[in-house]
Amino acid sequence: MIDFPLTKDEWYKLRDDRTRRLEEVTGFEDKSVGVIVNPEVSSSYPIQAMTLITLNMLARWCRKIAIQIPSDTISCLPNYHKKDFCEILKNNLSEADPYGQFAFKDVEKEAYNQTLFIGKAEENRYDDKAVWIDGCGWIAGVAYNAPQDILNECKQSNPIGPAFASCLGVAELFRRAIGLLPSSTEPSWYSLYDLKKADSPLSIQNPPFISNFNFGRIHQVGCGAVASCLDFLLPLTNWTSEIFLIDDDRVEVSNCNRSLSFSAWDAVSKRAKVDVCADALQSTTTMKAISFNGTYGNFIGQGKFLDFPPDLILCLANDHNVWGDIQNNYPPLVFHATTTKSWGINFGRHIPKKEWCVICRFRDEMNLSLTPICGESEVSIKKTEGESTIEGVLPFLSPAAAILTMAEMAKIPLAGYPMNDDFIEFSLRNIDGNFVQSQRKHLEECLCKDQPISLYPKEITSGKFWHLTEN
Known about the structure:
- By secondary structure, this protein is an alpha/beta fold.
- The protein has helices at 8-15, 17-20, 45-58, 85-96, 160-177, 225-233, 264-268, 273-281, 296-301, 304-307, 322-327, 358-361, 363-367, 397-411, 458-461, 467-470; strands at 32-37, 64-68, 101-104, 114-118, 130-136, 139-144, 188-191, 196-198, 214-221, 240-247, 287-293, 312-315, 333-339, 344-350, 379-382, 388-390, 423-427, 436-438.
- It folds into 2 domains: 30-203, NAD(P)-binding Rossmann-like Domain (Rossmann fold); 214-470, NAD(P)-binding Rossmann-like Domain (Rossmann fold), CATH 3.40.50.720.
- Strands 3-2-1-4-5-6-7-8 form an 8-stranded mixed β-sheet, with helices on one face. Strands 11-10-9-12-13-14-17-18 form an 8-stranded mixed β-sheet. Strands 15-16 form a two-stranded antiparallel sheet.
- The radius of gyration is 21 Å and the shape is globular.
């Protein structure tokens, strides 16, 4: 094994730089977490998905973690099927942080600053340091120091609810690690299907999940933090797609605080982000990833937009005039997702001729020379000529934004789509947040009004999801 080229101090200084840039964020570096996994993990897709995602995310800021889990657990996740699950977890942890102190053993709660329960736990094990998460299907639940309601047995192989539960739990642990008190000790349950919140999982919707849907051709514009998290999550389904990965950037150490796919070795070797994302997607045989190391403008300039016309565009970058490059080429269905400069995430959808495009969505910000923060970009606000700032990004926000994108993808084949408004905001600042939805009612103000359908190429109007525009 080749020695890691950065010293421990060098690694953490660079890795945690973006985390520390928020004013209130301090003190997390020396905190420890004991993770207790429900023994049903051996046969439970939801518990395995939560465990995999939670530990990957937690290791992006927490340097000392103990994991209590049955040692003979075999993976039932699609891209790791029938492999030793504990070995999968160990590899993920060491790749996320080569200097982390990660132990697989029984957790004595007194030895750790906080305890996280994944799945239902014995009630007498809760105390004032305990956080629990649970999730299945579209449902995610979290609470601090409280016994949980019963989540009915769910056999769905749906990563969306479990993944969002992971984000909620890690966010709560992080809040406590930096000294913020919880706003509520009552359980919070969310459905990513209809973006509703409740105090019991029995009162929110959890419809069937279509795990084997073919999305046709996707242009993924950007392979930064949000995109690379999405590419880590997609192989947890059996979805099929030909995905063009488009980015001209390379992995830096500072990217490793918030991406589920970027390893420490990817960063020190400065691997192309498209190659890392392609590796993540190609861990499954149902995804065909095609890398393009360049900007979307380069991609379009080489004629590839119509040579390989998209059924869906995922706009997960904000540099190189990407918004204009997308909208000015008469796109099909477009999704975009970002993180904010504090604790928030947002997701937007554009159905041509029906909803605001990404240019119009951020029109005011563009006029003010503001680039909304996302996992891809480090430059936020152009203050004066030649001057820019680098904002903080919290470790759990990019995965959460990726999950909103994935949830919207999962709704496409369901009856009644679209279910939600075209713009969604959510803050992980408090444990009892709500999804905020908004819909632009005045479409005549959007660039779309100047783009009659006759201008759209036949390669686009014959696409898999164009019926959403026609309907």
